[in-house]
Amino acid sequence: MESLKFSVLLSIYYKENVIAFKECIDSIFHQNLLPNEVVLVKDGPLTEELNLVIKDYISQYPIIKIVNLEKNQGLGKALNKGLQSCTNNLIARMDTDDIAKPNRFERQIQIFKEHPEIDVCSSWIEEFEENTTNILSTKKLPETHSEIVYYAKHRCPINHPVVMYKKEAVLNVGGYEGFPEDYRLWIKMLMNGSKFYNIQESLLYFRFSKDMIKRRGGWKYAINDIKSQLSFYRMGFLSLPILLYNIGIRIIVRLVPNSLRTFIYKKCLRK
C-alpha cells in the first residue's frame, strides 16, 4: 500500500478554533498509514495564534506545504488552489476541525489498490459535540456505485470531509464551483463517468454544532438550494418529477424553526 502515495488537502481561515485545528492535524500524523504530503491552504489572513501553531507544525512535519491566499475566497476556490499544489494523484480531503480515525488512510488506500477503477472513495462519519465520546449520530451513505448514483438524485452521496479522490478526475470536470461545491462536484464527476465507492464504516469524527444547523436555515439558503437543484436538472441529472420533489422537501427543511430542523437532521437524516 505504501507504493500509492497520497496528499492530504485542507483549507483554513481566520475563524478556525485553535484546539480543534490541533486535534485535526494530530490525527493526520497519528495514522497507521501516513501521507507523504500535506497541503494546507491559508484562505486569507489568519490570526497570530493560528499562524504560530502552523509554524510549529511545519517545524515538526516538513511535508506540510503552505498555499497562501491574500484574501478569503471561500472553501471551493481555496480547494481548487490547493489541488494545483498537490503533487500526488490521490488526494485525501479533510476539514480543519474534524478528527480522522487512525485507520482512515489505510482503509482508503486499500480500496484504491484493490480497485484501481475507483475515482472517489469516502466512508461514513460520526458526528460529535465537544469531544469524541459524545457521538450524536452516524451519517451513513450507500456503498456501491449504482446505489450512490440513485442516492445522488435526492441527496449528497459523499461525505466530503472524509473523501479521497483522484486529482485528475476532479480536474477533468473543472474542480469545485457553485453551490454546494461538493455536491455539484460529485454530480459532474458521476456524469463524466467517474466511479464511486463508500466504505461501510466510520473513518472520521465530524464536529457538530447547533450553529451549523442554524446556518442551514432561512430563505437565503432555501433559494440557493432551489438554484442548485435547477442546475442539476439543466445538467440532465434530474428528471422534472424528482426536481419538484427535491425542491419541496428542501424548502420545508430550510424554513422550519431551528429546533425542528435540528431534530430532522439528527433523527431523520442520520442514523
From TrEMBL:
The chain crosses the membrane at residues 232-253. Gene3D superfamilies: Spore Coat Polysaccharide Biosynthesis Protein SpsA, Chain A. It comes from Phocaeicola coprophilus DSM 18228 = JCM 13818. The keyword NAD does not apply. Belongs to the glycosyltransferase 2 family. Residues 21-147 form the Glycosyltransferase 2-like domain. Signal peptide: none annotated. InterPro entries: Glyco_trans_2-like, Glycosyltransf_2, Nucleotide-diphossugar_trans. The lineage of its organism: Bacteria, Pseudomonadati, Bacteroidota, Bacteroidia, Bacteroidales. Its EC number is 2.4.-.-. GO terms for molecular function: glycosyltransferase activity. The keyword Transmembrane applies. Keywords: Glycosyltransferase, Membrane, Transferase, Transmembrane, Transmembrane helix. This is Glycosyltransferase, group 2 family protein. It is an enzyme of class 2 (transferase).
